[in-house]
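#help-structures
NK: newbie question, is this the right format to request a structure? protein is Fe2OG dioxygenase domain-containing protein
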Amino acid sequence: MEPLFDETKLEPIRAWALANVRRFQPNGFGRQFASLHLFTNVPAEVWKIKLSIIERFGLRNTPPEPLYRDLCSLITRGGAVHMHRDPNQGGLIHTRFNVMISKPQAGGQPIIDNEILDVPEGGIYRVDAGLKLHGTTAVLGDRPRIILSFGFLCSA
């Protein structure tokens, strides 16, 4: 998997997440997240990345996922996302497009249906979150795992 976004887009987002982490919501050991619509100072690069994803994956007329919406997740040493499925809505599939903003020294890899993915910084991966079990391996080392996660309701 090749990165789609370079350091010029990633660094301002990484810096924003680290500067604002105290305002993120705790979400389990070593995990916190920010609902992006609740922040007024989100870097413009976030929305440029989202528009790029909408164009690349043909999502222009796809409704946004209304519960979790768009978020930034930050996981530190020892934290991991448990295996789970997210709720679907009205016959549409809860689908997430995740961008690796900061890759930890080790761990923090996404797991989708028992397959561990190796996603580089700037790489993107799709999760059919309402259909497939997904989570992450535990983050190891001092560098956090930071992702952007954009939610859509896609047809089956």
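mod (FA): yep, format's fine, and the tokens are attached above. The mean pLDDT is 96.
NK: thank you!
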